[in-house]
Design goal:
Number of helices: 9
InterPro entries: CHAD_dom, CHAD_dom_sf
Largest sheet: none
Pfam families: CHAD
Number of strands: 0
CATH architecture: Alpha solenoid
Strand content: under 5%
Helix content: over 70%
CATH class: Mainly Alpha
Oligomer: single chain
Organism: Chitinophaga silvatica
Number of domains: 1
Order of helices and strands: HHHHHHHHH
Shape: flat
Protein name: CHAD domain-containing protein
Distance between the termini: 26 Å
Radius of gyration: 21 Å
């Protein structure tokens, strides 16, 4: 059952990556395809981080993951810019302003990111991803299932214990690292949800990890937008360029939401960052 769960998950995400990749070859600026490729790549990385804990594991994936990570990084930049512009427009409506300089710079960055993604897709191939699930299954055909499940469960516990609650004034990067830990553990728990011991509490823990990932993700997007807008305001002031009407209100609205979202993230991380086995009793 463990081998089946691993194989089916890998098969599912490999198929999603190939579909997104084919869509991007036709339309490199397709935001849905970029997002799909990005998410499935993260899931695949979480999968192989988990698979490395299997006893006797020796399946090589570095080349595949390196190519995927490259596409994910470039495509992710385009996706982040797209989201930033949507969020900025939302705050502009509330502040009754239009920050034209911000949109101009975002559009320029978006164009550059899409051009880079287009060029990258011309020089890489993901054809071997199609056979990845079958090759992986073959590599674990002699797997000791009981020992493997014990090792994987221990790894999940270690991952849970590695999640910490940063200080409220900690740098953005520190909070972002915890966000990545939460998302990775969420994916890994999902992979093993049907094979974990009944007393492990995986369904409740998965729900809490999902919630944590969503809250931290929302905070991350707002925090990145705040950094971008504040930096741009600073640049414009240095160049003695007049700021749009209600710019102060715009920054204030984003800043207020960022603080509130960070407080929610802190509350959720406090639930998750416990120094005990990964079963929410």
């Amino acid at each position: 059952m463990l081998s089946k769960a691993l194989y089916e998950y890998l098969q599912q995400e490999s198929k999603a990556i190939l579909l997104a990749y084919e869509a991007l070859l036709k339309h490199p600026s397709d935001p849905k395809a970029i997002h799909a490729l990005r998410v499935s790549t993260k899931k695949l990385r979480a999968f192989f981080s988990l698979a490395k804990q299997l006893p006797g594991y020796s399946f090589g994936t570095s080349k595949h993951l390196h190519t995927l990570k490259l596409i994910q990084k470039i495509g992710g930049a385009a996706r982040d810019i797209h989201l930033q512009e949507m969020h900025l427009k939302s705050y502009e409506r509330k502040a009754k302003t239009r920050f034209s300089h911000a949109h101009l710079l975002l559009n320029t960055r978006q164009t550059t990111a899409i051009e880079m993604l287009t060029d990258t897709l011309k020089h890489v191939t993901l054809k071997k991803i199609k056979t990845l699930p079958d090759r992986f299954l073959k590599s674990i055909r002699d797997l000791d299932k009981d020992r493997a499940l014990t090792d994987l469960t221990r790894f999940l516990d270690q991952q849970r214990k590695s999640i910490i609650l940063p200080a409220s004034n900690a740098h953005h990067k520190i909070w972002h690292e915890e966000r990545k830990k939460v998302k990775s553990l969420y994916y890994q728990l999902t992979i093993l949800s049907e094979v974990l011991p009944s007393g492990y509490g995986s369904k409740k823990l998965i729900a809490e990890m999902y919630k944590g990932g969503e809250i931290l993700g929302k905070w991350h997007d707002t925090s990145m937008l705040l950094q971008y807008v504040k930096q741009l305001v600073s640049w414009l002031k240095k160049e003695n360029i007049n700021l749009p009407v209600n710019t102060h209100k715009l920054v204030s609205l984003i800043q207020t939401d960022e603080k509130e979202q960070l407080a929610l993230a802190s509350k959720q991380l406090r639930k998750l960052s416990v120094n005990q086995a990964a079963s929410p009793q």
